[in-house]
Amino acid sequence: IHFIMKKNLLFVCVVLLILLFSNSFNVKIFSPNKNYAEKLSTSDITVEQGSAFYKKQCGYCHTTEELIGPDMNKIKAFYLKKYPKKQDFVNAMVSFVSNPSKKNAIYLQDKDFMMMPKMPFKKDKIKAAASYIFDTKSFK
Q1: CA-to-CA distance for 100 and 125, rounded, in angstroms?
Q2: Are 30 and 20 in contact (CB under 8 A)?
Q3: Average pLDDT of the chain to the nearest whole number
Q4: Is the pTM of this model over 0.70?
Q5: Which residues contact 128 (CB under 8 A, 6 or more apart)?
Q6: Is the pLDDT score of 110 beyond 70?
Q7: In this predicted structure, what is the pLDDT of residue 53?
Q8: CA atoms within 13 A on the CB side of 133
Q9: What is the Cα gyration radius of the chain?
Q10: Cα–Cα distance measured from residue 111 to residue 10, given in angstroms and rounded to the nearest whole number
């Protein structure tokens, strides 16, 4: 357990140093891809667009390796227990991603992750990704 905690602390320190130095040189690292988000229309978003948006914007952090954020499979399981209906699931996920906080978090983590930062995505994009998450069996 101590090794895992030291490994996580080291990882957080390295990420913070990268972010610190990247800001000094006006380099944006780990920032959402705004250009891609703007290409999606605000009208009816297809499953393919929800999938592409998730893979481009969410899947970077939410991998099974859990290096940055928790595994989306685990997050989805917690949401499904509380919200088995798609509309409720999507609404809850949109609510959290729009304004992440410990107060409105549903997933109870077994690892210590930092709270997800607020992302500059429009709600319809988050809704498309949440719909895709609900409809997808498993994430790799």
Answers
A1: 16
A2: no
A3: 76
A4: no
A5: 40, 45, 49, 50, 53, 54
A6: no
A7: 92
A8: 34
A9: 16
A10: 15
